[in-house]
Amino acid sequence: MLIVFDVGNTETTIGLFEGTTLRADWRIMTAVPRTSDEFGIVLRSLLHASNVELRAVTAAAIGSVVPPITDPLAKACERYFGVTPILVDAKAALPITVQVDEPLSVGADRLINTLAASQLYQRDTICVDLGTATTFDCITADGVFLGGVIMPGVRTSAETLTRRTSKLPATELIPPKRVIGTRTEECIRAGVLFGAADAIDGIVRRIKAEWPGREVPLVVATGGLAETLQPWCSEFDLIEPTLTLQGLRLAYDLLVQQ
């Protein structure tokens, strides 16, 4: 089996593939400092809960935007699985073209999403990834990353709002029943979630207006809050929460053949 790690600034998403099938996936907090042994304990527990033995894992791939996490995670793979993980980053020889001014500065997650979109959909795509930041990746059918947009993530905006205002409480981001709130928490939820949805739709429409080709791009949403925002984002064509994990699997298959 192949285990893949999408290391984001807030959460690390882990996927376990048996062939092309995603057998299990988990999320752990990235911000918690861990040694390689602590990662090993976490991984052992997750696999045990899914009735998978350590020796069943025969390959690993890591896509990370948090360098301090990459090394202990890679060492955990070596020690507990006996495999050296493939690192997927801007230096990896992927069949994509990064058509931006500073290609090496593009985050691993955005490159992996580019690969996944070009391989799985084979059409022009806008990939909206709702993580710590909300990113809009502009990808052509033949795997060219044109650039995109980065805006504050939904939870990042909510946390900034409550942290920098003395009387606004921290609020769970559950869908509000209406726009006009009658309690402070309802007002915050409506502002954050509806505001994010309208901002996302607006950015997508602006991107479509500038799109270099005639084909209307497919809009794919991924990330932890994609399903939460789906009911209010009219521009989403497809929700694929595990797109980056699928991209890591594809990247591993391509890189291991080289």
Structure notes:
- This protein is an alpha/beta fold.
- It folds into 2 domains: 2-88, Nucleotidyltransferase, domain 5 (2-Layer Sandwich); 97-247, ATPase, nucleotide binding domain (Nucleotidyltransferase, domain 5, 2-Layer Sandwich), CATH 3.30.420.40.
- Helices cover 38% and strands 24% of the residues.
- It is built from 7 helices and 11 strands.
- It has a 6-stranded mixed beta sheet, sandwiched between helices.
- Strand 8 and strand 9 form a beta hairpin.
- Helix 3 crosses helix 7 (243-256).
- It is globular and about 55 Å long.
- The two termini are 20 Å apart.
- Pathway: Cofactor biosynthesis; coenzyme A biosynthesis; CoA from (R)-pantothenate: step 1/5.
- It is found in: Cytoplasm.
- InterPro entries: ATPase_NBD, Type_III_PanK.
